[in-house]
Amino acid sequence: MFDMLYIGLPFLMFFLFFGVGIIGTLFWIWMLIDCATKEPSSGNDKLIWILIIIFTHLLGALIYFLVRRPKRILEFGE
Prior knowledge:
By secondary structure, this protein is an all-alpha fold. The protein has one domain (2-76). The protein is built from 2 helices and no strands. Helix 1 (2-38) packs across helix 2 (45-76). It starts with a helix and ends with a helix. The model has no long low-confidence stretch (mean pLDDT 85).
């Protein structure tokens, strides 16, 4: 029984981290594309958000998704 635990646990951990990495990267790409295509080009806002998303990866994408995106949708409807 413990042999299965020693074999199964590393595979589970590998697939868990691999899955989170893939999903996080896809979310990051989605937010980067969303910002680049739908953010209005007023001033340097678009450039700053793109740089934040690029350099902070998942954290920047989450901040954009939770803070800026809802505000942009309310203001501009996109």
